[in-house]
């Protein structure tokens, strides 16, 4: 079974494992106060070109989103997100469990627009009795989105502008951030992105680490006491250095972008090959997740050798599925997948 | 600097690291559904001599306590714990953040008694207006306690009995469980303990793992939908196999107890050596944490070479400190510590 | 200024005030344990033809919805409701503040269908990883709905059936229940409704009381410890008899339905008069809220003498507004309103 | 049965009822936006000699404490209170249900000291890892305390000073505030108290109103968006004017203090009469709650005619009970109680 179902099917990049071994018997203090975390924080600040940024390491994505959002909102506030946003659908109500509503706006491709933010905000402040409704208190997006799509620099700028006009902190979930930065038409650097939001996180779990996410807080108002929030929400790892060592490795000489690039390259092989054969895609994704529309018969065959994610049925005979690549995807597995799909497509064509 | 300040100063036992490397490029499904988690669960069920137990892997202690407790209590219930219990003092209000009160009972040594449970329970049900007060809904203890002390089998039995009489699920926090099981006067096995509670967890973070705790649910009523709780509270690790691989390694041939034994042996070296020299201890701890009462001058000197935890001042001239050993503690470091303490003690005696 | 903006513009029905005066210096115990609450509970049980029902009195609607829902759901569950449901839009996130998601389904008229419940439920249980999503745990509707529309007995039966099939408690918000029961094509009694759900409440605030809602719990599983929930959520009124006295008055000889009937009669005067003049309505409401589509110019004029609620714009020249009647609405005010609307309509017609 | 068990055994002062009747058919807008609430707010501002104060009306005490505290604290903060504080013992965990710990300090008489606040605060900031513990975020006291005792002006000043030094908002629960202000050795006015805290509330439920508490916010930082909090926590009464009308009546010509004075006078009759006969008291209360230590045999007899609250057993033969007086207590009932106690005391003496 060759797996394309997600971007966390394997362990960690081998340099991370090597580093864990070489540092294993060092004695350090706990909870992220060790020299590795310290160095990793500095490396990330440099990559963000922002010496004042606060950098914290948490274990996983749900925990990170919950901690950032619960730390920012007042009790009667909610966070604006796409209906397809991770916090809206795939975190078992973790945001609500902190007491906050996710205020959803519709999205066809996983992205939201500045107008949508403005409409929600203005509808609220123009309501005759706003105190009867949840007050918008934050804007959440994912870059790239859960559908693989990506915001351009101009789009981020516009979202950040409208958020600031509305007084709403702008939070970017970067669980797969590397795969956006490494995409072929990406027009922004990590430093650009760090200038276009109040807080974001750099995903490690899905990009080469065993686990771990690095929260980067740019807005001074969001900085105080964040460690209390991490601890309360279960994210302050006793052996915090595990996270420091991983991000140190990922950021000391460009490994993060390098392995992201590999994943995107593998995804583009899939995309371009299928597109050439006339296959359509549900979303126009330049990143590591691809959503082709394929014949159900073909998918049935493919399941014998490959794992991938069923997304949705689009007709009596066709469905959308998701193929994920990652830092660990092997070229020969992609070739094999594409070869098998091509053969099946030809076979089915021949039948007709 | 030689560290005795806690039991998570180093990385992980080398066999765990080796296993992470040897399995690194395996492709597995996520969130604890992989073969390693499956096997680790079976090994733990065997060690507990309970084939029906549900076993779940979470990342850290605060998260584990929060998830178990929030999953068990009704909204108006609280959990009974010692004033010194980890959930009462060192989790930044994580239990309260799930909406529940920690109902504390006083404790000199970190342990609570069946009578204390009974008194809280009866005071509540005999109150004329019980609905004005938090209803006791669970009993929480740590084995060993935060002070290194240990419950005997008879004591656990008595606590479990009274909990059952009161209809209160009995939960044992085993963050350092191995260090209790390996202590020299321990009269119980893991399987014994698993028969004496409704739910408990086996700590990995403090005993050889990079991170990870294994929750073992014995009571059928506490089993349904526990994975929803883990996910909502941020504990469902994407690469869940990291936890499975570690517990597989710890439980496949007795490594967990073996390394716990080492830590306890090192602690006993400290204990016996100091006791012989007439040093008193704040708590009578047979486990990996030792709390000697030492002269402040001596401690001042010691700090140049060793890290340890200040606990409390007991007189104008003496303080209690905590020395922790762990699976990773090296004999030569213990010898060095004891040598330096002896020399200082002699020096101070000579002065007098 | 004559007010039609809501159904709580006045104080209380005079018989309630008289009863408050005549009982004022009685000494009774607090928190709903007094003889008036006792008698009111019995009267409501009789009206529901269910001697086993638990009846509790709370102060307001948001509090009641929050208490019932938080008492029913497990931490990872959410409540299914229409997008227009009161709990989804007008309670400042009170449900989320208890940790639960409101799972909304679209609705044009304020009502939801059994199919919508089934789709949400089946989508969840058929999800490959349901524990990553909020689990549906309850169904919430309002009878009549926030848009004045009403479920028939058959519709309630169908919703209750599907809820039971899915194992979801079915909760009816009856903030305006009397106005449904008194509507001209209502085919159910209070006792019928009490057989078609697990829990519901009878609104007092909007139907003749100073304040107060009576929760009726039919399902035995939802009964235990409900008073703890009321107390914790701030609903256990010290002078609980105030609520008992009011519901005693409303239910001892049919006052509740009698005054509801008056409100509906007044609403039908408005409805029939406007309909005769060719005015269309946004919702087909047989209850005390009417939503006519009127020319903006006319509305502008009307605002000088009458208060009512702007609902939404439907064209460049027309808007929907809401007129509410209540137990306290005076016939001459309705006549005056209708006269003024007719004159304006004629004037505008004459212009054309 | 003559009741002295609490201060909410009767309805409301008759002037309040008269006002409810005379205003009953006025049409006003809802949720506290009506002229009566407006006027009541102004009267309270005047009584507080603070034109900038925000005044809000809520329904009950638990709700008020919860709303004020949840509005003030950050998620990881707790509120310092006496172990006997109402929020610590008699609100079914309502504060914890908002996610916050009540940090208790011991108290013999219901009062806390500036030193206790300082110690909690300093222990926290001097902790090596403060983020592992709940951060003190507010100070809560009751004036008078739950035990009837009272803070002097100097004591309030000292508590306010230390709170400000520690950056902790200082909140006074005034559920029985009138009974403190009217006590014979009270050295402060309402305006004095309003200068000595950040936020407090004036209790109506226990002092002449049907229900209702008036929150007075002095500190500008605590003012924004408070109505959102009230609504979310179920305290925004639809017919808000009910609260406005009551506080208007209580504050327009001194009624609040006048009826409080009556209650205190009745309590002092009890106190002085018993003291004269050599009866000791558990607390030195100058307010409307009296806690005499009486022979169990006498109490047994007394229960046939009077209701009062058992407090605690102090010896094999004696217990403490609580007698409450209120604005509604009738002199003849007090006389009767004292006569019966005297007779019993003499009878028992005669036996000896």
UniProtKB/TrEMBL annotation, chains A, B, C, D:
Its cofactor is pyridoxal 5'-phosphate. Signal peptide: none annotated. GO terms for molecular function: lyase activity. One of its GO terms (biological process) is amino acid metabolic process. The keyword RNA-binding does not apply. Residues 19-239 form the Aromatic amino acid beta-eliminating lyase/threonine aldolase domain. Keywords: Pyridoxal phosphate. Belongs to the threonine aldolase family. This is Threonine aldolase. It comes from Paenibacillus xylanivorans. The lineage of its organism: Bacteria, Bacillati, Bacillota, Bacilli, Bacillales.
């Amino acid at each position: 079974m060759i797996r394309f179902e997600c971007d966390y099917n394997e362990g960690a990049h081998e340099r991370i494992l090597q580093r864990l071994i070489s540092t294993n018997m060092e004695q350090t203090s706990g909870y992220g106060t060790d020299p590795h975390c310290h160095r990793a924080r500095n490396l990330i600040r440099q990559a963000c070109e922002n010496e004042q940024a606060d950098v914290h390491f948490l274990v996983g994505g749900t925990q990170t989103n919950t901690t950032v959002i619960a730390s920012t909102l007042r009790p009667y506030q909610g966070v604006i997100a796409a209906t397809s946003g991770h916090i809206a659908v795939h975190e078992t109500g973790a945001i609500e469990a902190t007491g906050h509503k996710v205020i959803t706006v519709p999205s066809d491709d996983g992205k939201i627009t500045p107008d949508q933010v403005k409409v929600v905000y203005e509808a609220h402040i123009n309501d005759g009795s706003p105190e009867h409704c949840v007050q918008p208190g934050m804007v959440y997006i994912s870059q790239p989105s859960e559908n693989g799509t990506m915001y351009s620099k101009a789009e981020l700028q516009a979202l950040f502008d409208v958020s600031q006009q509305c007084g709403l902190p702008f939070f970017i979930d970067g669980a797969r951030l590397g795969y956006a930065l490494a995409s072929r038409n990406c027009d922004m650097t990590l430093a650009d992105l760090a200038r276009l939001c109040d807080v974001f996180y750099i995903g490690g779990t899905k990009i080469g680490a065993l686990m771990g996410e690095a929260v980067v807080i740019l807005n001074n108002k969001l900085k105080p006491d964040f460690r209390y929030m991490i601890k309360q929400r279960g994210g302050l790892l006793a052996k915090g250095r595990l996270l420091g060592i991983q991000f140190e490795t990922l950021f000391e000489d460009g490994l993060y972008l390098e392995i992201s690039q590999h994943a995107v390259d593998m995804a583009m092989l899939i995309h371009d090959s299928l597109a050439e054969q006339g296959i359509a895609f549900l979303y126009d994704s330049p990143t590591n997740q691809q959503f082709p529309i394929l014949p159900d018969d073909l998918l049935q065959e493919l399941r014998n050798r490959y794992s991938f994610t069923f997304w949705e049925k689009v007709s009596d005979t066709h469905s959308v599925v998701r193929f994920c690549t990652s830092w660990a995807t092997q070229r020969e597995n992609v070739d094999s997948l594409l070869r098998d799909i091509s053969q099946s497509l030809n076979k089915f064509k021949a039948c007709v």
